From TrEMBL:
GO terms for cellular component: membrane protein complex. The keyword ATP-binding applies. Belongs to the ABC transporter superfamily. Pfam families: ABC_tran. This is ABC transporter ATP-binding protein. Residues 12-242 form the ABC transporter domain. It comes from Mangrovibacillus cuniculi. InterPro entries: AAA+_ATPase (IPR003593), ABC_transporter-like_ATP-bd (IPR003439), ABC_transporter-like_CS (IPR017871), MacB-like_ATP-bd (IPR017911), P-loop_NTPase (IPR027417). GO terms for molecular function: ATP binding; ATP hydrolysis activity; transmembrane transporter activity. Keywords: ATP-binding, Nucleotide-binding, Transport. CDD domains: ABC_MJ0796_LolCDE_FtsE (cd03255). It comes from the Bacteria.
Length: 242
């Protein structure tokens, strides 16, 4: 069952989630007793200082890592105790990842890099549709080294998008980009959220980006420091670049 949250349907539900790395004296509490609900079809921004648990939070939601304690459900599935095989299927069916470092394969063209995402999905979108969407149709046969940083990030977004993900997880997607290119990438993510109804979760060090999100989560020392809703998110192009 979906869980009601105000007038929203909650997609991601964390209850008393902890994540520990290491043993004994070397234990790091990357997440400590985090309870939070993230709504469907919106943009949620995660802010917080370095080491506060942002990537860990994103990785456990995306099934790249498992939690140590608590409960985690995504799209009505309790993914807390899934084995590796089921977790892989969950990632395949639902999740697209975008990272700061675009992680494109240098020996493959734009088109071929995007094809990889297609092969990872059970219900992929058309390659041409996605190329058009990210504005890279005329560069489909180029190699990554022939592209600017912003273009490479658009290819990485296309590779995530072609999977037709319900959930798009972005870890510092504009971290390596200048203001103009960074905003263009944010506009693309906002378009995708608005047109496809994709749930977007975005980690950033740039607090200005929070203004384009409906939900802003702040992390501090592995704990949830605050959860704020924003009834009037601004268009990405109006974001104040900090
Ligand atoms: N695989 C791991 N093994 C051990 N410790 C880890 C591992 N991954 C993360 N940590 C630790 O967990 C804590 C939270 O890390 P995390 O990467 O989630 O923070 P973050 O807020 O994303 O940081 P940043 O903004 O620098 O990317 C840090 O102390 C980090 O060193």
């Amino acid at each position: 069952m979906d869980i009601e949250w105000g007038n929203e349907i909650v997609t991601i539900h964390l209850k008393n989630v902890s994540k520990r790395y290491g043993e004994g004296e070397l234990t790091v509490n990357a997440l400590h007793d985090v309870s939070v609900d993230i709504p469907k079809g919106k943009i949620t921004v995660i802010l917080g200082p370095s080491g506060s648990g942002k990537s860990t939070l994103l990785n456990v939601i995306g099934g790249l890592d498992t939690i140590s304690n608590g409960e985690l459900s995504v799209f009505q599935q309790n993914i807390t105790h899934l084995d590796e095989k089921k977790l892989t299927k969950y990632r395949k069916d639902y999740v697209g990842f975008i990272f700061q470092s675009y992680n494109l394969l240098s020996m493959l063209t734009v088109k071929e890099n995007i094809e990889i995402g297609k092969e990872l999905s059970s219900s992929p979108l058309q390659l041409d549709y996605v190329l058009e969407k990210v504005g890279m149709k005329d560069k489909a046969d180029k190699f990554p080294h022939e592209l600017s940083g912003g273009e490479q990030q658009r290819v990485a977004i296309a590779r995530a998008l072609v999977k037709n993900p319900t959930l798009l997880l972005c870890d510092e997607p504009t971290g390596a980009l200048d203001e103009e290119t960074g905003k263009a990438v944010l506009e693309l993510l906002q378009d995708i959220q608005q047109q496809e109804g994709t749930t977007v979760i975005l980690i950033t060090h740039n607090p200005g980006i929070a203004a384009m999100a409906e939900v802003v989560i702040k992390m501090k020392s592995g704990k949830l420091a605050s959860f704020e809703e924003n009834a009037n998110p601004i268009p990405a192009k109006e974001v104040k670049w900090v």
